[in-house]
Amino acid sequence: MLCPMDARTLGSTGIVVTELCFGASPIGSMPGLYGHPVDEDRGVATVEAVLRSPIRFLDTSNGYGTDGESEKRIGAAIARVGLPADVVIATKVDPATGSADFSGDRVRRSFEESLERLGLDRVPLLHLHDPERISFEEGVAPDGPLRALVDLKERGLVDAIGVAGGPVGLLRRYLDTGAFDVVLSHNRFTLLDRSAESLFRVAREQGIGVLNAAPYGGGILSRGVEAVPRYAYGLGGADVIEAARAMEAACARYDVPLGAAALQFSLRSDLVDSTVVGMSSPERLAETEALAAFAVPDALWTELEELLPAPTSWLDARE
Fold first, then answer.
1. Contact between residue 128 and residue 136 where contact means Cβ atoms under 8 Å apart
2. What is the pTM for the complete model shown?
3. Given pLDDT bands bounded at 50, 70 and 90, which one contains residue 72?
4. Residue 16 CB neighbours (<10 A)
5. Average pLDDT estimate for 202-217
6. What gap in Å lies between CA 87 and CA 89, rounded to an integer?
7. pLDDT digits over 90-136, tens only?
8. 8 A C-beta contact, residue 249 and residue 292
9. How far apart are the first and last CA of the chain?
10. Which is nearest to 211 in space by CA: 126, 277, 129, 276?
11. What is the rounded CA–CA span in Å between residue 173 and residue 136?
């Protein structure tokens, strides 16, 4: 069982979430991304364990796994053990598998599919997922995905809408529309990369909720360089890998797991409302508790900051 977690209000939405969010991408079983499959029993058991834990926030997507497998497994777990009243479920709209259609009509169908898989009639938070797949002009067109999301919110089918993706400049353009309540960025606010820091500061100033996903940079900051010799699934450069190696060595000198420093970097930031961490087994809950609670000395934080790669190495400089 995990230790109690801080509860935080997500920006100005009024939605209360825990500082740690269960990222349900891995339970969708995407071995091409994560390097290993996750069978149905293990996926459902993981969600059941999360629902029994102090984590009160789950993040998934229509596009996680073949035909929404992540959502299906969450729905199966909810059907077995019920959905506690204080648990927040967030999902994301996506084109259909193999399709490039991200129109307003597709957004509405994506949402309907998600509700059916989850076994719910509404969700508190719905994201526009990876909008870099279309042009910004398509995204904000009258018949585009943004208009459809706003319509779902106006109809009371969701409480808040967010934009979740990669390129920081594009996310900022979407925030500038004034339509979004929440922003989620991945791999861009970590020990190795601060690309999203300015975005998060703007969001905080505007009362927009901030979710920071992938604090381990795709695994390199949890499993180490030898096991995962790439940052952000291969998006990072060689200098980032060398910085990760140096950070791993620094943590070893202090007898601190690299994953503890990587996770707590996000958890301790006043720019982040909740940190989204992917988990694919019940055992990862106990491991995550240990990493979140591990004592990290101030001297190590200072040393890790000194090892941060130059901004020219961050993802936003490469995009």
1. no
2. 0.96
3. very high
4. 14
5. 98
6. 7
7. 999 999 988 999 999 999 999 999 999 999 999 999 999 999 999 99
8. no
9. 41
10. 276
11. 8
Q: Residue 302 is part of a domain; what is its CATH number? A: 3.20.20.100
- Give the structural domain span for 182: 7-318
Q: Which residues contact 27 (CB under 8 A, 6 or more apart)?
A: 38, 42, 43, 46, 47, 64, 65, 69, 70, 73, 74, 279, 280
Contact 21, 59 (CB under 8 A): yes
**Chain position carrying tokens 């719910």:** 120
Residues 6 or more apart whose CB falls under 8 angstroms from that of 50 comprise 22, 58, 279, 285
Collapsing DSSP states into helix, strand and coil, what is residue 13?
coil
Structure tokens at 113: 């599919």
The kind and range of the H/E element at 182 are strand 182-186
Instruction: For residues 4 and 18, give the distance between their C-alpha atoms in angstroms, rounded to a whole number.
Output: 9
How far apart are the C-alpha atoms of 217 and 227, rounded to whole Å?
13
Tokens found for residue 80: 């077995």
DSSP H or E run through 128:
strand 123-129
Taken as a whole, the chain contains a residue count of 319
8 has which bridge partners? 17
One-letter identity of residue 6:
D
In a domain, residue 2? The reply is no
Place of tokens 């820091």: 197
Rounded to whole angstroms, the maximal C-alpha distance in the chain is 56
Domain for residue 236, yes or no? yes
Q: How many domains does the chain have?
A: 1
Q: Does residue 6 contact residue 275 with C-beta atoms inside 8 Å?
A: no
Tell me whether residue 1 is in a domain: no
> Residue 167 and residue 66: Cα distance in Å, rounded?
25
Distance CA 164, CA 166 (A): 7
- Tell me which residues are annotated as active site: 64
- Residue 292, in any domain of the structure: yes
Residue in this structure with the two tokens 């943004």, named with its chain if needed: 146
pLDDT for the residue 112: 98
